[in-house]
Amino acid sequence: MLENIRISFQSILSHKLRSILTMLGVIIGIAAIIAIVSMIKGQSEQLKQSMIGMGNNSINVVYQQNGGEEEGFHELSYTTAPPISDETIESITSDPMVKGVSLYHLAEGVTAFHLTNSAYPQVFGVDQDYFNMFPIRITEGKALTDKELGSKHQVVMINEDARDELFPDGDAINKKVEINGMPFRVAAIFTEKKQDESVYYGEYGNPIFYLPKGVWPLIEGFDAPTQIAVQADSSDHIQEAGMMAADLLNASLPEAELEKAEYSVTNLQEIAEEMESFNQAFALLLGGIASISLLVGGIGVMNIMLVSVTERTREIGIKKALGAKRRVILFQFLTEAVVLTSLGGILGVLAGCGIAKLITVFYPMPFIVSVPAVAGALIFSMAVGIIFGLLPSIKASKLQPVDALRYE
Fold it and tell me: How does it sit in the membrane (predicted)?
């Protein structure tokens, strides 16, 4: 076997250009498959992190009415939640699955603003716990201090989309913004701070406003949080941690209250399964298209091996005259075909990884190389060599020594 591999490399190196052109179909096919699988896996991971885990293994536990959509989705407020006891929060935070908890207010809608380009500006009433889970990066002005976040000062931090719409001239710091008729001073402009720069969170263009949680009663008339974010210790525990928190919160509600509204979380498992199903179908479709290149490459390998058998007819005749058996000749040419396609497979894997990495530079998403895909591609490239190299190898093994020696 080692001798056959050595002879194969000698033959390939003696016809470098021909060998490269022969491998090109295999290289393109394997590269396309590896790049496609890597992109789909990277996109799937990006969606899981940004949509399912909110970018940092977090999930929202939402208080909403039973049997319908949340009230006020198109207005400024959500269903008013009852007060949450410190004992309930302590029970949630003491669970080993939970890394952090943030109680905050969220309202969205267009009724409080005169905005033209965005569907739903979002207004948050937050404290420092929220920013521990969802950090932001200040681009102008000064971030609100812990003292300000815990006060009833009418100050606000707005994102760049809100600044661009409310203050087209770009000068927003210390200017006034009215929210539900209440004036707020703009203290800072911010942008989202990515937890992982390889994750693309998307640019939705929604104006976002962060107010101190203590000032919320001034604009809504109640101070109980409408949203609870629970951060799990890992992505595997996101759903479980959210359901645990929802159960504890519902257990603290009176029975009469539970009949009207309750805390709930999105079924992330269903979302993940739907995403996985879509990605698999998409991968099969694109993989099937890329496999056409492998078929073309296999035909090229068969063609060049037939040419090689014709060129080396006298060599085959001499080996047979010296006592070489049919299987020795067959395995020699079959090994050469497998080595040729395997080299193409290796180069294809490297090219595919390079293409996938290059794409992540222009379209930010995680760069993930699928080990099973790489192993499958290499095995498949070897199989192409065996399948398409078998006919030329059989032809070589069937040559008669006398006819081969007389061949010119």
Answer: Multi-pass membrane protein
Instruction: Return the closest-CA partner of residue 294 out of 349, 336, 341, 333.
Output: 341
Which distant-in-sequence residues (6+ apart) come within 8 Å of 312 by Cβ? 396
What contacts 230, CB < 8 A, 6 or more positions away? 58, 59, 60, 61, 92, 98, 100, 101, 241, 242, 245
Q: What tens digit of pLDDT does each residue of 367-397 get?
A: 778 788 888 888 888 888 888 777 777 877 7
Provide the pLDDT for residue 29: 82
The encoded tokens of residue 309 equal 């058998």
This model's pTM is above 0.90: no
Q: How confident is the model at residue 76 (pLDDT cuts 50, 70, 90)?
A: very low
pLDDT, mean over the chain: 77
* pLDDT bracket for residue 210 (50, 70, 90): very high
d(C-alpha 31, C-alpha 354), whole Å = 9
- Whole-angstrom distance, CA of residue 149 vs CA of residue 142: 13
Q: Could you tell me the two tokens for 27?
A: 């290289």
| Contact of 112 with 123, CB cutoff 8 Å | yes
CA distance 177 to 208: 12
Residue count of the chain? 408
Helix (H, G, I), strand (E, B) or coil at 185: strand
Cβ burial 340-375 (10 Å sphere, 16+ → b, else e): bbbbbbbbbbebbbebbeebbeeebbbbbbbeebbe
Which of 389, 380, 356 has its CA nearest to residue 293?
Answer: 380
Tell the residue number behind the tokens 């937890």, with chain if given.
195
